Amino acid sequence: MNIRLRHDAIVRSLRRSGTSTIDELAREVGASRRTVLRDICDLRDQGFVIHSEAGRGGGLQLDPQSVQTTARLSVAEVFALLLSVAAMRAARSLPFADLADAGLARIEKALPSDKIRDLRLLLECLHVGQLSPLQDLSDMGAMDPALLPAFEAAFLDRHCLRFRYRDARGRITVREVEPQAMLILPPLWYLVAWDPARDDFRHFRMDRISAPETLEGTSFRRRRVPFGDDVCPYSDLPL
Length: 239
Hints:
Elements: H1 3-17, E1 19-20, H2 22-29, H3 33-45, E2 50-53, E3 59-62, H4 75-90, H5 97-110, H6 113-123, E4 126-128, H7 147-157, E5 160-166, E6 172-185, E7 188-195, E8 200-205, E9 209-215, E10 232-233
Parallel strand pairs: 4-6
Antiparallel strand pairs: 1-3, 2-3, 4-10, 5-6, 5-9, 6-7, 7-8
Helix pairs in contact: 2-3, 4-5, 4-6
């Protein structure tokens, strides 16, 4: 059980039982006493009011009026929201832009400092431009939902990425690359990577990528991607 599921299970248990002990919660979520104690501290930091009473008949009690007050979104989830806003803005189809920016700013402020650092590292890799009107979109497909979590690990930890790629002719190859940037040319999205096998940069349409896999134990250096003048970093995108 991951930490988010464990936190949810602890809150549900406390709401249901009224009073519970650390040992009971540890058995219920399949974790150690130390882990549950750390989880209780995390939940309190998130805004849940959890009382503790020592002695026989004591235990933990969750205030029934207690609610979560801090964001529990992951870096990948916040990044996905920012990607969506960036894509719509680049396509000049973002109504209520000011409200969208204000909402995203509030979410970012609620993130812990380590998540903000990771989010900004991901945003440094994001670039936006305009798609040529001559681009053929007849074979455009859906993107693999496993891409974003794989990108998070690859970009933040600088691990190589392996995936299956279908080219314009439908041929499937397995590629191992060094992810350098993400490029949004609405409605197409690209992974820009250094391909060691070809000793050059390559642009991979994300809707043609499948089965992405982060290669643990690998590393690479960040390279300067030679984008054209019509492509700008996300941070320079006009509001």
